[in-house]
UniProtKB/TrEMBL annotation, chain A:
NCBIfam families: PRK05205.1-3 (NF003547), PRK05205.1-5 (NF003549)
E.C. designation(s): 2.4.2.9
Entries under InterPro entries matching the protein: PRTase-like (IPR029057), PRTase_dom (IPR000836), PyrR (IPR023050), PyrR_bifunctional (IPR050137)
Keywords, alphabetical: Glycosyltransferase, Transcription, Transcription regulation, Transferase
SUPFAM superfamilies the record matches: PRTase-like
GO MF, one annotated term: uracil phosphoribosyltransferase activity
Protein species of origin: Nonomuraea wenchangensis
Protein name as catalogued: Bifunctional protein PyrR
Automatic annotation (TrEMBL), chain B:
HAMAP family referenced in this protein's UniProt entry, alphabetically: Asp_carb_tr
Positions contributing to carbamoyl phosphate binding: 55-56, 105, 133, 136, 261-262
Organism encoding this protein: Nonomuraea wenchangensis
Summary of subunit composition and partner proteins: Heterododecamer (2C3:3R2) of six catalytic PyrB chains organized as two trimers (C3), and six regulatory PyrI chains organized as three dimers (R2).
EC class name: transferase
Task of the protein: Catalyzes the condensation of carbamoyl phosphate and aspartate to form carbamoyl aspartate and inorganic phosphate, the committed step in the de novo pyrimidine nucleotide biosynthesis pathway.
Name of the protein in its database record: Aspartate carbamoyltransferase
Reaction catalysed by this enzyme: carbamoyl phosphate + L-aspartate = N-carbamoyl-L-aspartate + phosphate + H(+)
Family, per entry: Belongs to the aspartate/ornithine carbamoyltransferase superfamily. ATCase family.
InterPro entries: Asp/Orn_carbamoyltranf_P-bd (IPR006132), Asp/Orn_carbamoylTrfase (IPR006130), Asp/Orn_carbamoylTrfase_sf (IPR036901), Asp_carbamoyltransf (IPR002082), Asp_carbamoyltransf_Asp/Orn-bd (IPR006131)
Stored SUPFAM superfamilies: Aspartate/ornithine carbamoyltransferase (SSF53671)
Length: 194, 305
């Protein structure tokens, strides 16, 4: 589990507050059920840290709505990233597959922010080593644009037009003590999506 | 973390915990069907072994390969070293071949330290003389943590040939950093003179220490390094310092038995103790690959200066 996010800077603006986050997740949960015809054969895999939390929440919501228990897990992409050599070695997140694995399943990858698409590419590579799903879909709480790879999300909580210089930070109750999505005027030009 | 891993004493508590936590995640890779990660693709790891060691070399080789690094094995026998090449020239040759990391096992204490000044890549000490063997200490700590849950305040007893053991020194330093209490037990002739400065207790009476131990680590009597009579006979050593069935029964019910291998069954450890469910000896080998993956990843996985 990673450390909680620091207190947001004074110029941070909340684009989604807690009720907005909840509504977005509720809608995504319904969309997943709709698109997969009741969630049959679906596995939710979150990308640590906050993607894994969101995957668990989506799983809980789907269980509430339809009474079906969807397998939830996490897939850490650190070892598959393409920018490893740009920064010091970083700590690893947890990869935890449901007992039945991902073979022949519809895997829904869950992340908090979709930005360059590089994290998702790494996740697809990681998934390749874990099994052979029938299909892979992508759910994200925020899509902030500026893709660098041909990747798109199937389920989006909020499309958020941003400048590349801005930062988007997702805060979640489980790790950060509150639910919110904040937008900040960025300082460094090079900022990655985690 | 530093660029090299020469001594377990160089690791801060945060460094050591980072390595153990990384290994904990990497252990899951060993359980899946594709046991390979692309992380060190294009990096070269040289195993530079001046002393025979099958298990450590294979362990490092497996670890590097699971991270997709290229591995070059260099053993001193039948190499340029037997033709009289110096350590420095060997090092420069490896450097010219583009080694990103050199894993070195050498009979002389301090060889990895010297090497670190000559090469640009990372140097990992895989055992130097009677000095240190930090990855062994890390895998031991990892094995203990997996069995016991944590190391803080745990009582660990290391028994046997401390004088010739690099494992003992590395373990004392690392376990002390991690908050465990270490007691060394050996005949006075097999303790180094400097042991008073080590952060640990010393005892000559195994039977008194056993009932208060969470972990008992038996060391091999290194006959190949013994140039004098350190004890009257093997039988007497075994009687006083060997872990036999009766001594095993004196240990607390949840205490574990470790041995870095290779072991002399019947000498320092009885066969039935080595094969018991509370012995971690086979686990230690599997954990060795995992911990070496963690070390190689943390040294080579990020940006390199």
């Amino acid at each position: 589990m990673s450390d909680p996010r620091p207190e947001p800077r004074a110029d941070a603006r909340a684009v989604l507050e807690a009720p907005d986050v909840h509504r977005a997740l509720t809608r995504i949960a319904h969309e997943i059920l709709e698109r997969t015809k009741g969630g049959d054969g679906v596995v939710l895999l979150g990308i640590p840290t906050r993607g894994a939390t969101l995957a668990r929440r989506l799983g809980d919501r789907i269980e509430q709505f339809e009474g079906v228990k969807i397998p939830v897990g996490s897939v850490d992409v650190t070892m598959y990233r393409d920018d490893l050599r740009l920064r010091p070695a970083r700590p690893l997140g947890r990869t935890e597959l449901p007992p039945d694995g991902v073979d022949g399943k519809i895997v829904v990858l869950v992340d908090d922010v979709l930005y360059s698409g590089r994290t998702v590419r790494a996740a697809l590579d990681a998934l390749n080593d874990l099994g052979r799903p029938t299909a892979v879909q992508l759910a994200t709480l925020v899509d902030r644009g500026h893709r660098e790879l041909p990747i798109r999300a199937d389920y989006v909580g909020k499309n958020l037009p941003t400048a590349k210089s801005e930062k988007v930070r997702v805060y979640l109750q489980e790790t950060d003590g509150r639910d919110a999505v904040l937008l900040m005027k960025g300082l460094p030009a090079k900022e990655e999506s985690r | 973390m530093k660029r090299h891993l020469i001594s377990a004493g160089d690791l801060t508590k945060d460094d050591a915990l980072l390595i153990l936590d990384t290994a904990e995640e990497l252990a899951r890779v060993s359980e899946r069907s594709i046991k390979k990660l692309p992380t060190l693709r294009g990096r070269t790891v040289v195993n530079l072994f001046f002393e025979d060691s099958t298990r450590t070399r294979i362990s490092f080789e497996a670890a590097a390969k699971r991270l997709s690094a290229d591995v070059i094995n260099f053993s001193a026998k039948g190499s340029s070293v037997s033709k009289g090449e110096s350590l420095k020239d060997t090092a420069l040759t490896l450097e010219a071949m583009g080694a990103d990391a050199v894993v070195i096992r050498h009979g002389s204490s301090g060889a990895p330290h010297r090497l670190a000044n000559w090469v640009h890549g990372s140097v990992v000490n895989a055992g130097d003389g009677t000095h240190e063997h930090p990855t062994q200490a890390l895998l031991d700590a990892f094995s203990m943590r997996r069995r016991l849950g944590g190391l803080e305040g745990r009582r660990i007893t290391v028994v046997g040939d401390i004088l010739h053991s690099r494992v003992a020194r590395s373990n004392v330093l690392l376990l002390h950093t991690l908050g465990a209490e270490v007691t060394l037990v050996a005949p006075p002739t097999l303790l180094p003179v400097s042991v008073g400065d080590w952060p640990c207790e010393v005892s000559y009476d195994l039977d008194a220490v056993l009932p208060k131990s969470d972990v008992v680590m038996m060391l091999r009597v290194q006959k190949e390094r013994m140039n004098a009579a350190y004890f009257p006979s093997e039988r007497e050593y075994s009687r006083r310092y060997g872990l036999d069935r009766d001594r095993f029964a004196k240990m607390p019910d949840d205490a574990i038995v470790m041995h870095p291998g290779p072991m002399n069954r019947g000498m320092e450890i009885a066969a039935e103790v080595a094969d018991s469910a509370r012995s971690t000896i086979v686990e230690q080998v599997a954990n060795g690959v995992t911990i070496r993956m963690a070390v190689l990843y943390l040294l080579l996985g990020g940006e390199t200066a």
